[in-house]
Amino acid sequence: MSTMDLTTPIDLLRPPRVVFGAGTAAETGRWVRERGFTRILVVADAFNAARVDRLGLEGDVTVFADIKPEPDVPNLEALLAVAERVEPQVVIGFGGGSAMDLAKLAAVLPGSGQTIRDVVGPEKVAGKRAVLVQVPTTAGTGSEVGTRALVTDPATMSKLAVQSVHMLADVAVVDPDLTLSVPAAVTAATGVDALAHCVEAYTNRKAHPLIDLYALEGIRLVGRFLPRAIADGSDLEARAGLSLASFYGGICLGPVNTAAGHAVAYPLGTRHHIPHGAANALIFPHVLAFNAPAVSAKTAAVLEALGLPAASDPAAVFEAAYGWCLELGCTMRLSAFGVPEADLPRMAEEAHAIRRLLDNNPRDLSREDILGMYRAAA
């Protein structure tokens, strides 16, 4: 696969204002006050709801504190009911990807006459109803810079994906200090999620030199700082490096997006409630090795950026990537998460149906290829 040339058009969106750095969380409140907004809705999980004071907010602040990992449609509907009542001028996503994704939807759906099912797909959202501020507390999803939101449909156990320019944050406040409390295992999983965003964009059919710049630097940052942050959670430089890697990964998601890695990982979350980052870490070596024959030079560059020996032979690629994830402490076996062997064919069927991602992959995957990955990971 040849790299796209510089003449290929690309559309890169980012929040109009980005505040990055240690101790910047309180800039959220200052930014809101400067604009005279007083009705504020904060979307958070229970842990982050208990530290909303870090944002320095004033006025009529409502906190929705019930965001679940892998949020589903009922979780979203509960949030939207609160938003309909509060009629916020500002919605603040304060947490990981789940909180930030639902904050996007809370900023566009209430009062619009549209439901989640009306807006699934690209650019179906009618408009923005409230100002949107994103404040990540993990270093993984990069959702603070993106225009997509994912919600699980409990009826089909699949992801409903919404993409809209109206869900772009008006300001993103990235304070690495907020990630200091993240445990080592979650740091590892979310760090590999950020890595997967960068790698899947870099090796994508739609890869572009403009995005390659962010992708490769994001991979380097993860390779340099993720082992340090796991070893010492109070390492401020490492936390900042991972927050920047996550941000770069979010930029990669916009015009290019992910590919087979995320498609194969999704059923682990929707069917078995494996955290998204952990699912991506488990799948990452399998997909990187599978794609190596189609993108050999870029695969070698990925390994080098991680600080590993360059390789493009699938067996060598797998061994290097698997060993790296294992050394981080990632759980690399489906059985350790209680996934039954009998469920693997159904999972492969569901993953193969995610064409919006699989069609980006540099090498075509059959259902049998995906099933083979699951069985190798069992």
Textual characterization of the structure:
The protein has 378 residues and is α/β, with parallel strands linked by helices. It is 48% helix and 12% strand. The strands form 2 sheets. The protein has a 6-stranded parallel sheet with strand order 1-9-6-4-2-3, with helices on both faces. Strand 7 (148-153) and strand 8 (158-163) form a beta hairpin. It is globular, with a radius of gyration of 20 Å.
| C-alpha geometry | globular
Q: Determine Rg (CA atoms, Å).
A: 20 Å
Q: What is the end-to-end distance?
A: 31 Å
Task: Outline the low-pLDDT stretches.
Answer: none
Largest sheet geometry: 6 strands, parallel
Question: Reading side by side through the largest sheet, how are the strands ordered?
Answer: 1-9-6-4-2-3
Mean pLDDT: 96
Strand content: 5-15%
Oligomer: single chain
Q: What order do the helices and strands follow?
A: EHEHEHEHHEEEEEHHHHHHHHHH
* Helix segment tally: 15
